[in-house]
Amino acid sequence: MNGNAKPPLSETYGSLTFSKKAMAKHLSKAVYQKLIDVIDNNEKLDDEIADEVAHGMKEWALTFGATHFCHWFQPQRGVTAEKHDSFLAIDEQGRIIERFSGRQLIQSEPDASSFPSGGMRSTFEARGYTAWDPTSPAFVLKSGRAATLVIPSVYLSWTGEVLDMKTPLLRALRAVEERALRVLKLFGNRTAKHVRVTIGPEQEYFLVSKDFYNKRPDLIYCGRTLFGAASAKTQQMEDHYFGSIHPKALDFMADLDARLFDRGIPAKTRHNEVAPNQFEIAPIYEEANLAIDHNLQLMEIMRKAADEHGLSLLLHEKPFTGINGSGKHMNWSMSDSDGRNLLEPGTAPKKNVQFLVFLASVLAGVNKYGGLLRAAVAEAGNDHRLGANEAPPAIMSVYLGAYLDKLLGEIEKGSFEKMEAPEVMSHGLLKSLPSIALDNADRNRTSPIAFTGNKFEFRAVGASQSIAEPATALCLAAAHGLDRILSRLEKFDGKVADIAPKALAVVRDIVKETKRIRFEGNGYSPDWHKEAAKRGLPNAKNTPEALETFLDKDVAGLYSRYKVLTEEELKAKHEIKLEAYVKIKEIELRQIKELAVACVVPALTGQISASGHAAELLGDAAKGGAKALKSRLAEYGALLEALDESLALVDSALEESAAEQDMAKRAAWLASKGVAALEALRAACDRVEEAVDQRLWPLPKYREMLFLL
Ligand code: ADP
Ligand code: MG
């Protein structure tokens, strides 16, 4: 046997989660079964079991040396939050013991007055509470000397208002599940007990050397470089994508995967992405709530692992200008309790009317709520990415692939019966290779919502974002589509065998009505932007504009119809997101100003004095040389002026912003004048970087950050 052999993955996988295996070991049979019913079969949680579950969890956590527990939740500011309490208790005899009660498991009260609530709560009534979400397994978080039992939770105010991203998600998931089940029943399915939304997020990221990172305050405080002259080589050779992975990056990935496996996060693929030092990790898809909790954990684990490898993780949507940014592709489908993917067309999609119904429901949802999908991914960082010809445009269209597109066209005309089954790809003479269904190979990377074989892939999500928001929006859109179909089909009281033609008629109407969102061409082309405008598709250019959709009456109707969020809660969401946008933009403006004044201007004046001194030394000795130096000096002078002018723009953008009381106007101001000032100052800084002596430039350059690990 190999001396280095580790125990196989199948034995160690999930060792740090309170998995079914751990539950079986630490809970009585009856309690174990009750808990499994809650997790797997949508049963209601019986509070009576909480004490025993808490005790079992604690005993399990103690085996890892855990001293504390915490409720882990997802406030609306996007990242996760936790507050640790120790198990420490003193019993009646004054002895130190570890205690963790059912009450502590079920509910906790963080002092939450500092979380954004969008003006829904004033500070004196700010207390919110967190409540255990048993459908997402608890886990032990190990970090340095700390070991903590972490309990995934929802977060609500005492008056019942939603304060987090998980609660709306869970509600939206239920809305889809319930309706999808009804569709299955209509098609004669008697075995499906539940339907689950499934999500598989592909996560893109950059790694940079920690030494460089620590010398770039813009990376530290803004997550992106606010300026930086382009390096000669960027991604033009296309030699990074799927290239062999840098040993340091691979070492990091191996360590990352090991940590993810311990946490029960099913990491599956890892590869180089398009930009230099850009990578991707994708897990095996899971039930949506779990997939999202896992993605949030993944981002945290990646950050820590990178740090321990002398690297820094960049999740910003656009850390470097001029090269690709990072997104998170949310693969989305629905699966029934028998494990059948409801978006699987099979080999004869035209006969699979049930599939066509589910497909049509998403089309109907996206057609009506495309603006909402855009709003759900609106964030300052993503503004740099959407529509930048490397990520999908901000126009929410759907790509179906050649076969399905044609099939829907034929359904519309009523002549689909003649359609052949999908072709398989031929390898020419190579008979020994397996055949591949064409649709799976035929991908359009320029579409924000692509149907890829047997799932939708929503590509507009930003790399750093929580998927909860876009998943909630897409689920609600789909629930709306399903309801449209159900409202017509459930009136039908004939035999199950006769449902197909009725359903096809409904599908046909939806196909007609949703034609405008279908687009198979190049989403980057200017023609498409013109065409989309003609079709009346929303195309919000920036975050504040996109966020207005949350105030839309139709959208409010959607969220309240499915009891996901009230109009007030949506208004609060709008406010919270605007505020975040404003804060990010103001931090960027202040940060670029500080760097320009503290690093860029001194580098330039240093250059001026060196060149001036050199000109003096040369005197008339070499006329040509002195002339060249003088003309350079004149250029430097002009650069200094340009720096000062754009610094003044930044100052006035900040002043005007601070003076604006209305949050929406303030955000809009920053999106126009603020962004213009940032760009002007950036251009000036980049020119200075290109002009000055390397030894005078105090910051790591693009060519270092992007190519050296
Ligand atoms: P690609 O880069 O070609 O899109 P990847 O393998 O990198 O493919 O990612 C595909 C993602 O889609 C994976 O995370 C995978 O688990 C996920 N996925 C596959 N099937 C489904 C499904 N039915 N529901 C949700 N996600 C899925
Ligand atoms: Mg993909």
Q: What hetero molecules are in the model?
A: adenosine-5'-diphosphate, magnesium ion
CATH topology of the largest domain: Creatine Kinase, Chain A, domain 2
Provide the CATH top-level class of the largest domain. Answer: Alpha Beta
Percent of sequence in beta strands? 5-15%
Number of strands: 19
User: Mean of residue pLDDT?
Assistant: 92
- What is the count of distinct domains? 3
The low-pLDDT segments are: none
The CATH H-level homologous superfamily of the largest domain: Glutamine synthetase/guanido kinase, catalytic domain
Radius of gyration: 28 Å
The name of the CATH architecture of the largest domain is 2-Layer Sandwich
**SS summary, helix count:** 23
Main beta sheet? 9 strands, mixed
Envelope shape: globular
Brief account:
By secondary structure, this protein is α+β, with helices and mostly antiparallel strands. It contains 23 helices and 19 strands.
Describe this structure in words.
The protein has 709 residues and is α+β, with helices and mostly antiparallel strands. The chain has 3 domains: 9-164, Roll (Ubiquitin-like (UB roll)), CATH 3.10.20.70; 172-227 and 237-422 and 436-565, Creatine Kinase, Chain A, domain 2, CATH 3.30.590; 582-705, Four Helix Bundle (Hemerythrin (Met), subunit A). The chain is built from 23 helices and 19 strands. The strands form 4 sheets. Strands 9, 10, 11, 12, 13, 14, 15, 18 and 19 form a 9-stranded mixed sheet that branches. Strands 1, 2, 5, 6, 7 and 8 form a 6-stranded mixed sheet that branches. A two-stranded antiparallel sheet has the order 3-4. The model has no long low-confidence stretch (mean pLDDT 92). The structure holds adenosine-5'-diphosphate and magnesium ion.
